[in-house]
Amino acid sequence: MRKYTITILFIIMLIGSAIVLMCPADTESVLAENREPQEFPAFSVSSVWSGSYMSQIDDYVNDNIGFRSKIMTLSDKIQSCFGFLPDGMGKIISTTKDIGTGESQDSHLVLYDGRIMEMFSSNPEVEEQYAEALNTVREALPERVRMYSMLIPTQLEFCEPLYAGVEDSQREAVDTVYGRLNNITAVDAYSKLYDASKGGADYLYFNTDHHWTMDGSYLGYAAFAQAAGKAPAAKESYQMKELGSFCGSLYLKAKSQLPWNTYDNMFYYDTVANGSFSMLMRAEDGVTEYGTQTPVFDTNNCNYNLFFGGDQPLMEITNNDRPDGETLVIIKDSYANALIPWLINDYYRVVVIDPRSFGGNLLNEVERYDADEVAVFNYVLTTTFSDYCGMITDLLTN
User: Fold this and answer.
1) Could you write out the three-class secondary structure of the chain?
2) pTM of the full structure
3) Would you place residue 345 in the very low, low, confident or very high pLDDT band (cuts 50, 70, 90)?
4) Fewer CB within 10 Å, N or C, the chain?
5) Is residue 352 over pLDDT 50?
6) Which of 196, 178, 206, 202 is nearest to 338 (CA)?
7) pLDDT at residue 269 tops 90
8) pLDDT digit string (tens) for 17-74?
């Protein structure tokens, strides 16, 4: 009898899997995670040999199945049973992390006090790769170009010790990377955020999204200005505008486990209201010119895509009020999107490159714009993704 039961269950699982694979792909759940669905990988002997080909097929199937959101919700409920904080003190749930490189990692979220927060797991080997990637860029740049690096911590690092203690130290990871940099100025955003958090500053990070708010990014801007020997503009000199409430990228991963109704408020400081800016976005397939009506703040998006409409391959923002100013080239992940609006008043031109999608050559862009500075702005979890490190160095050879 037991043999027949197992056989029947196995057949049901096969039929269920076939139905899920045959149904139209639930790509909306992938787009809701602020990324594109994984495409079927191109075959190569080297990718098969390294094992990455099968891993990419795995990611393709995971992104292109029917009922994906419902399956993920069920998976979250099951996996959440395997991790917890003391009763009444919050919860730890298992999930996956993808920063838009195609690589996916197991990860964990802490649910506490109306917030959903990513846990950081240090990877010393990748931290070394990250530092070496930046050093490789530094060596390739003209000597006259100044280079900066900012690694941005996440909010769990600044929570009470009981909660911050469940993850590896982000401070140590940042210091390790900075200690390996050669002729690159390290930007200490960590101390600014730490001091503000311990001083009672509120809402430096979103509750349901892994990014910082524009109040948090102002502290990163102030840290960069300090490292560059410049005076940051006063936050109060810009009008704050509110768009309304939203649920961020982490909400979808944790909603089945949330014991509360939680949301975020989207707001921004209008740093372009009184200036004359022009902007273009450039990819390999052409240029989109926006002219003086800049989309620095895309108010059609009441979420983190408010900033520039999301990640773009290359953005060129020209401040027509500063024709004699300098030019800054930024290599970045999405964390920098909320930081860039603070910077554009301080430069003649800010050029923003996302190594995950830009197929051009960094040195060509530095020469094209006669750049004075290059800055790498990423959040600390990029130091755990080796493929992101490779994308930085690929900017020199594309």
Assistant:
1) CHHHHHHHHHHHHHHHHHHHHHCCCCCHHHHCCCCCCCCCCCCCHHHHHHCHHHHHHHHHHHHCCCCHHHHHHHHHHHHHHHCCCCCCCCEEEEEEECCCCCCCEEEEEEEECCEEEECCCCCHHHHHHHHHHHHHHHHHCCCCCEEEEEEECCHHHHCCHHHHCCCCCHHHHHHHHHHCCCCCEEECHHHHHHHHHHCCCCCCECCCCCCECHHHHHHHHHHHHHHHCCCCCCHHHCCEEEEEEECCCCHHHHHHHCCCCCCEEEEEECCCCCCCEEEEEEECCEEEEEECCCCCECCCCCCHHHECCCCCCEEEEEECCCCCCCEEEEEECHHHHHCHHHHCCCCCEEEEECCCCCCCCHHHHHHHHCCCEEEEEEEHHHHHCHHHHHHHHHCCCC
2) 0.81
3) very high
4) N
5) yes
6) 206
7) yes
8) 556 456 666 665 555 555 566 677 776 655 556 555 565 666 666 666 665 666 555 5
Amino acid at site 61: V
Question: At a CB cut-off of 8 Å and minimum separation 6, what does 309 contact?
Answer: 295, 298, 300, 301
Which token pair is 209?
């999204």
The 10 Å CB-count burial string (b at 16+, else e) for 45-79 is eeeeeeebbeebeebbebbbbebbeeebbeebeee
Rounded-to-integer distance, Cα 13 and Cα 99, Å? 31
| d(C-alpha 93, C-alpha 84), whole Å | 7
The alpha carbon of residue 339 and the mean position of all alpha carbons in its chain are separated, in whole angstroms, by: 12
The CA distance from 386 to 397, in Å, is 17
